[in-house]
Each structure stands twice: as C-alpha cells, then as structure tokens.
C-alpha cells in the first residue's frame, strides 16, 4: 500500500519541487522544461539520476563524475580549468579546457600522454553550464548531441525527438578524455554498476539521496525502483541522468521576481544594467527568459581554423567557428567564460564585445546585421551588476534543493 501510494504521489512531488520551493511562489517566467514522451519524469528515476550524476565510479578510474564538471555553485559549469596547448606550447592555438581523466590504455592502465603526461587530460573547450541545456534541441558547444536518441547497443530509436540530454550523457561517458579509457564497452560500465556501492567515494549525501540509498542500497535495486526491473543498460543510465537534469530549473532569480511585478527585486544598478542589456541588443542572442536563443554563432573569439565549432557537426562551411549561445542565468558564478575559457571575469567578457577585432567569419547580430557595441559611461558597470546579481538563483549559489549534492571524493582531504 505504501509503495503504491508513493508511485501515485511521485509525479505530483516532482511537479511541486520543480514549480516552487518551501512555499515560495514561482515567478512563472521560464517555460516548462520539455520532456520526451519516451522518458517521463518520475521521482525514483530522478533520484537515481542524481546518484549517477554525482558518482565518480562512472568514470574508468573513479576520479570523475558528471557533476565534477557541472557544479551548481559554479553556475552548473566547472570551477576547475586547465590548459590544452597542443604539441607546441605557448602558441596561438593554446586554449583553456576542463580536466578529465588521465590517459589510459584499453585495460584502464594509466599511460604517459605526449601533452599531459600522467596528469588529467584537458578538453579543448571548457565545460558549459548543464542548466542552460534543459531547453536546447542540440547540446554541447557545437550541438553534437542531437534530438534523436538511439540505443547504442541495438541501434533502435529510444527517443524520436527531444533526447539531446540523453545523447549528451552517453557522449561524455564514452569520451576517453572526459570519463573513460579507449574501448570501454557499455557492458563494461553496466557490469561495474552491478558490482559497486552507489556513491561509495562520496560523502555528505542530500536527504533525498540518503533516503533512496537506505531503501535501495545497490544499483540493481535503484534501477528496479526506477524502471520496474533491475536491468542496468546504457539507455536507462542516460534516461535517469537526463531526468535528474530536467528538474534543475534555476527560475528563482531577482530578475524573475522583477518581471513578475516585484519592483524591489533588482538593485538600482542592476535595473540600469537590465536597460543597458536591452539597449545594446544583448537580448537578440541572449533572449529572455532563457537568456539564450539556443542558436549557434561565430562571435569572433578565435579563428575557426583552430576550432571549427558547429561545422564539425554539420560539415557546412557557413557554420565555421560557430558555437551555441550559452544561457546567462547564473553566469556570475562561473569561473571561466566563453567556450575558450579565456575570460575569468565578467568585466573581461563585456569588454571583449566592445573592443573585439573583426576576425574573419564573424556572424551578424540577429535582426540587426553588422553591429558595433557602444558602451559608454557606467554601462559596463551596470551591465556587470545585472549579470552578476539579477540572474543569480540563490538556491544554485548555496547548493540547496534541488541543487544540493554530495561531496565528491575528489573534494575530500587526502
């Protein structure tokens, strides 16, 4: 009876915590997160996804979880960064990226990498915020995780449309720089989950995770609760993690309250910054309320010969150097900005738009054409204040529910 009641109440519980927290009314600015029909949100699946997302044991060497590169207090992005130099350190093609796993052979044994040695490899782009991906049809900076999701074992369609998050999960889990060794099979990963204790390397579990593990202490039991049987598959791993991600809507910002009628929600400087944001046409790409249009543009940050961007996915020369417009929600929490990670402060990113060189292939501003930003007087300070404070969800910054998380093993004192 109790189990049946929980299954009946689970969808309501999910809707409630996505829509409001602790009785605080929702500002109703963000649209509902799209959910594919093949992967509906349920509470057992959400909690399983949360456990998987924060479990470093999903990586081949037990060092990297999905959450390692996507931490709420860093705006859903990576607080760490490293340098990818190529083979010619100190030249124009050097770029910041996110540390992943050490270089390994197919047996999972660490090898001496020609660039990184025995240190973690670094990706060629910094990890984007996972929060900004919830409404996107294509995920990653280049959009390589598309809408149609196939079972990697059978090749059958698992999600006909709307499965970008599921594709993103499997892409990262199979990437030998991010989370695995070359040649790891899905049977290798699912077999490992049958053997290990969930979150064995982590500490300080959130309440919902503790409750789930008390009732279902191993992964087969967690998958049984989420899917009706204890089968662990790549598709189910992707379904669970994507479900968890879809419940992380950061919609409690001062801007949301301001737009809902609370004129006191923004400071005077942030309100001036909101006016600047609109006047300078920032909204043409960073469209409210998502603060992204989820399109792809070349903004002239670096030459496309060093990063082809979207062209690497579409093979269309018109897409050379284009990357997805990131959401600016919680941007003030991020350690590195832009896909290159070359800016460490918002003020630097703002200055780039005002002083950037016109590199070949730069796209026009939608609805405007060729455009020159004209920051005068206090504009840059007001814009910085708006981005830093008005778009900040305090639950994200403080890592409170639903953005709470375990402490990773890599964060613990040795």
Structure summary:
It is built from 13 helices and 6 strands. It has helices at 2-19, 43-53, 164-173, 186-195, 207-215, 219-227, 234-246, 254-259, 268-279, 311-314, 346-355, 379-390, 394-398; strands spanning 82-84, 95-97, 149-150, 157-159, 296-297, 323-324. A two-stranded antiparallel sheet has the order 1-2. A two-stranded antiparallel ribbon has the order 3-4. It has a two-stranded antiparallel ribbon with strand order 5-6.
List keywords for this structure.
single chain; mainly alpha; Cytochrome Bc1 Complex, Chain D, domain 2; two-stranded antiparallel sheet; disordered N terminus
Provide structural commentary.
The protein has 13 helices and six strands. With 414 residues, the protein is mostly helical. It folds into two domains: 217 residues, Cytochrome Bc1 Complex, Chain D, domain 2 (Orthogonal Bundle); 143 residues, Cytochrome c-like domain (Cytochrome Bc1 Complex, Chain D, domain 2, Orthogonal Bundle), CATH 1.10.760. It has a two-stranded antiparallel sheet. It has a two-stranded antiparallel ribbon with strand order 3-4. The radius of gyration is 21 Å and the shape is globular. The termini are far apart.
- Tell me the total number of β-strands: 6
**Gross geometry:** globular
- The CATH C-level name of the largest domain is Mainly Alpha
* CATH homology superfamily of the largest domain: Cytochrome c-like domain
Beta-strand level of the residues, as a percent range? Answer: under 5%
Helix content: 25-40%
Order of helices and strands: HHEEEEHHHHHHHEHEHHH
Question: What is the CATH topology descriptor of the largest domain?
Answer: Cytochrome Bc1 Complex, Chain D, domain 2
CATH architecture of the largest domain: Orthogonal Bundle
On the 0 to 100 scale, the average pLDDT is 91
Instruction: Figure out the total of helices.
Output: 13
Radius of gyration (CA) equals: 21 Å
Spatial ordering of strands, largest sheet: 1-2
């Amino acid at each position: 009876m109790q189990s049946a009641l929980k299954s009946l109440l689970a969808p309501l519980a999910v809707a409630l915590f996505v829509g409001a927290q602790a009785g605080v009314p929702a500002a109703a600015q963000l649209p509902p997160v799209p959910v594919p029909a093949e992967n509906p949100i349920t509470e057992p699946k959400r909690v399983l996804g949360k456990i998987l997302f924060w479990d470093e044991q999903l990586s081949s060497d037990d060092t990297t979880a999905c959450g390692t590169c996507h931490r709420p207090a860093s705006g859903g992005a990576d607080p760490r960064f490293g340098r990818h130099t190529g083979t010619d350190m100190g030249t124009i093609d050097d770029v910041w990226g996110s540390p992943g796993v050490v270089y390994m052979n197919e047996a999972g044994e660490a090898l001496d990498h020609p660039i990184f040695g025995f240190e973690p490899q670094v990706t060629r782009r910094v990890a984007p915020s996972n929060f900004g991906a919830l409404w996107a049809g294509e995920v990653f900076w280049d959009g390589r995780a598309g809408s149609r999701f196939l079972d990697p074992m059978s090749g059958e369609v698992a999600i006909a449309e709307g499965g970008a998050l599921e594709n993103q999960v499997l892409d990262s889990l199979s990437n030998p720089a991010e989370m695995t060794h070359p040649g790891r099979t899905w049977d290798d990963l699912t077999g490992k989950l049958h053997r290990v204790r969930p979150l064995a390397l982590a500490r300080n579990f959130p309440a919902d995770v503790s409750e789930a593990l008390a009732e279902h202490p191993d992964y087969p039991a967690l998958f049984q609760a989420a899917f009706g049987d204890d089968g662990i598959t790549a598709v189910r791993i992707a379904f669970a993690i994507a479900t968890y991600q879809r419940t992380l809507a950061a919609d409690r910002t001062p801007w949301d309250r301001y737009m809902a009628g609370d004129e006191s929600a923004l400071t005077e400087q942030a309100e001036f910054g909101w006016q600047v944001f609109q006047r300078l046409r920032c909204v043409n790409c960073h469209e409210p309320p998502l603060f992204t249009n989820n399109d792809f543009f070349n903004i002239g940050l670096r030459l496309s010969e060093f990063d082809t961007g979207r062209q690497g996915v579409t093979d269309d020369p018109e897409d050379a150097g284009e990357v997805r417009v990131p959401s600016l929600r919680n941007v003030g929490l991020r350690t590195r900005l832009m896909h290159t990670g070359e800016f460490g402060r918002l003020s630097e990113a703002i200055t780039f738009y005002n002083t950037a060189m016109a590199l070949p292939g730069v796209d026009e501003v939608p609805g405007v054409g060729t455009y020159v930003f004209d920051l005068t007087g206090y504009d840059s300070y007001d814009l910085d204040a708006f981005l830093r404070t008005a778009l900040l969800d305090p639950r994200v910054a403080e890592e409170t529910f639903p953005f709470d998380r375990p402490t990773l093993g890599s964060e613990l004192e040795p």
